[in-house]
Amino acid sequence: MAAVAVAVAVAVTAALAAPAVAAPAPAPARAGHPATQAAMDAAVKDGVPGVAAQAKDRRGTWKATSGVGDLKTDAPRSADDRYRVGSITKTFVATVLLQLEAEGRLSLDDTVDKWLPGLVRGHGHDGRAITLRQLLNHTSGIYDYTADDTFGRTYFLEDGFLEHRYDTLSPQQLVRTAMRHKPDFAPGTSWNYSNTNYVLAGLVIEKATGNPYGDEIRRRIIEPLHLRATLVPGTSPKMPRPSSRAYGKLAETDTGPTYDVTELNPSLAYAAGEMISDSGDLNRFYSALLKGRLLPAEQLSEMKKTVEVDIAPNAAYGLGLIERELSCGVTVWGHGGGIHGSSSEAVTTEDGRHSLAFNFNGDWSGDSEAVIEAEFCGK
Question: Is 66 a catalytic residue?
Fold first, then answer.
């Protein structure tokens, strides 16, 4: 599947490409970020239109770009570009749910049916047997609605996307799409990445608070951390400035025409991947999260309890947070995200002192793992 389905899968697979260990090793000291710049340049050579990145460590903030932000004008990318962050949204959603648990307003051991009675039913799905924790760590077994063939043809592939890119979809519609299929497995018996899990998590936030999940993210995370480039766009198809154009193939392969897919109605992703941010804000968010500024120690510890990942056995998935060890022994935490024309990564060391976030404005090529390895391992 192309666009959202492939971009999310690629971003998550890349984000799960290295083993996890218990304690982080210190990053090697070096002057500047030449290896990171070289890896970004290599991604552009591989076909990515452009890359925008920011890193923050003990030496300060480093901003860099490679390639172009507009294929028609050859205008360069800006390191301050805003972009669609896709599944990085999941860490924000998980953080809010954990805050609600800390406030005693819900429990991770609550069933989905307690909060959304009757919604998760059909073809073997049963919300009475699935917990909120299983939504957040993708052990629920709930089918991923983005894998539905009809949904894919309508919103990911060329003819469907060009006709339906401005459609508004409700989260309930997304869940109903998943319910047309059998579960991937019995709850708690395996692991499989499913965007439906976080659509449901967003709905639980709304039920528990009485407010749209995006309002809770703004009140609890965006405003306290002064994330001025970060927003939950809802149904708005526009990108705020500064931003570059986003490009996709809208096909099942990485060949063929390239389309400008910048504008789309992000309701097709909802709480699984609709947010917009920039690299500086993402670094600030993950650093604050790992430093304990957003969650009490108990909830942060819960977030970092990981499960094995079958498709990438050398990594681990927590509650909306991925742990991985790089080739040089540095352990980083974060998440990847993909949506039409946009592939992003945001990672930070466990102490929150060294962060990297970057975006490819194309969804069909480029080695994001190489950029992360270059920044933290210097190679």
Answer: no
Which tens digits make up the pLDDT trace of 216-245? 999 999 999 999 999 999 999 999 999 999
Q: Tell me the CA end-to-end span of the chain in Å, nearest whole number.
A: 32
Catalogue all structural domains in the chain, each as residue range(s) with its CATH number: 3-377 (3.40.710.10)
Q: CA-to-CA distance for 195 and 98, rounded, in angstroms?
A: 19
**Contact status, residue 336 vs residue 322, Cβ threshold 8 Å:** yes
Q: Which long-range contacts (CB under 8 A, 24 or more apart) does 170-174 make?
A: 170/267, 171/199, 171/202, 171/203, 171/270, 171/271, 172/119, 172/203, 174/145, 174/199, 174/268, 174/270
Dihedral of the CA atoms 129, 130, 131, 133 (nearest 10)? 150
- Categorize the per-residue pLDDT at 315 as very low, low, confident or very high, splitting at 50, 70 and 90: confident
What does the pLDDT look like over 13-22, one tens digit per residue?
Answer: 333 333 333 3
Q: How far apart are CA 277 and CA 85, in angstroms?
A: 6
Q: Rounded CA gap, 60 and 110, in Å?
A: 43
> Distance between CA atoms of 264 and 378, rounded to whole angstroms?
37
CB distance 38 to 371 below 8 Å: no
Count CA within 13 A, CB hemisphere, residue 60: 4
Q: What is the residue whose two structure tokens read 């959603």?
A: 93
Q: What is the DSSP string of 270-290?
A: GGGT--EEEHHHHHHHHHHHH
From the candidates 66, 78, 87, 355, give the one annotated as an active-site residue: 87
Rounded to the nearest integer, the mean pLDDT of the chain is 92
For residues 142 and 271, what is the distance between their CA atoms, to the nearest angstrom? 16
The strand ranges marked E within the chain are 50-57, 60-67, 82-84, 121-122, 125-126, 247-248, 259-260, 276-278, 307-308, 316-317, 322-325, 331-339, 342-349, 355-360
